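Ticket #4471: structure export looks truncated?
Reporter: QA, pipeline team
Priority: medium

Steps to reproduce: submit the single chain below to the structure queue and open the exported record.
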Amino acid sequence: MNHAVLKADPLDAGFSPDAVRARVLVVDDQPLNIALVRQFLSDTYEVLSATRGAEALELCRTHKPDLILLDVMMPEMSGYEVCNRLKGDQQTRHVPVIFITSNFGPDEEAHGLSLGAVDFIAKPLNPEVLKSRVQMQLVIKHQADQALYLAAQNGKRQRQFGDAVNGRVGMCVIDVHGVFRDVNAGYCALYGYAREELLGQLFTLIFAPEDRRQVLALHDKFMHEGGELMGSWHAVRKDGSRVQITSESIRVPGDGDHYNRLVYVSKSDSTIGVSGGEPYA
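Actual output as written to the record:
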């Protein structure tokens, strides 16, 4: 491990993803699909809807959603084209986009991520998966908005969370025990694992064996005492190659004053070697 810093963070104490009712825009040419998403999310979020790409673009400019759930296959303008236009507009480029599609494969995922989407969710929708992915992206968006607002204090942090919102870095949600509860596509691409291979595993899986004890101790201290955890680490991909990463963490409050999750934002600095092609256990 190169270095890690644990320090007081004025943003942490006042942060709550539910402090303001977030606005989610659902874009799908099938009203039934929109109705299902509304049923799953409307108790927690304000849900807007559009059935055409042009309508979605106009709603984004006038109603400024916090997150967009976007169908891929639509008439007149595909979801890919909508996403491309959103990311090309200064007013909407920072709004996270999650594609919802039944045509879900590696090529489609890679194309969507290249356009700036942060995640994919497969149809038919699983309500718990949908809620978890939406909440994770809104937590990151909330923190990114704070970082952008305080950009004058820390330009580096602004760039870190701005990259997170635009899907250029990996994000994961970890519980109080250090177990993966959710990961985004960028995180899977960074470390070479499928999402299903990470969920339920200790997050120290991706760190070099010599760093795991210290990383776990820092995680436990940060979870219980708060502050800000940022650092540079040696991580290990599934194929055994090592990579230098930088990461920053956000505590997510549960009931009352209890914090029960962390969101880690990570990005690669450089590959630093290959260890024979075998993954570390």
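Status: closed, not a bug. The export was complete when the record was re-opened. Leaving a note from the reviewer for reference: The two ends are 18 Å apart (CA to CA).
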